[in-house]
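Translate sequence into structure tokens.
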Amino acid sequence: MPKLKIVWRVSDPPTGMYRSFHHRSWPTASINGAPAFSISCEDSYYPPYVKTGKHKPLFLLVADWRQPHSFTWKRFKKGFANLKEVKKFAEEWANKNPDTFKQN
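Result follows.
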């Protein structure tokens, strides 16, 4: 079976007059254009801190497409120290469980 192609996307930085009131969201991923993964954290996404790992633990959510016509976000119990760990785990998990992403 071929590897699933996971496309990660980071939200655009806030702009405009009230940008200090807005926060960037953590990266999300899609497989074949459909939601697949989302990363959550108590801290806001701030690139300098992400690069150095100065944030609270990251948690991975997976879109479970096994019910008809919709998906449910399910969160892994395991926390991750940095973005690289999360992405690696997500890729390995997706390729071991491809049926989770088959839309009905």
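Note: The radius of gyration is 15 Å.
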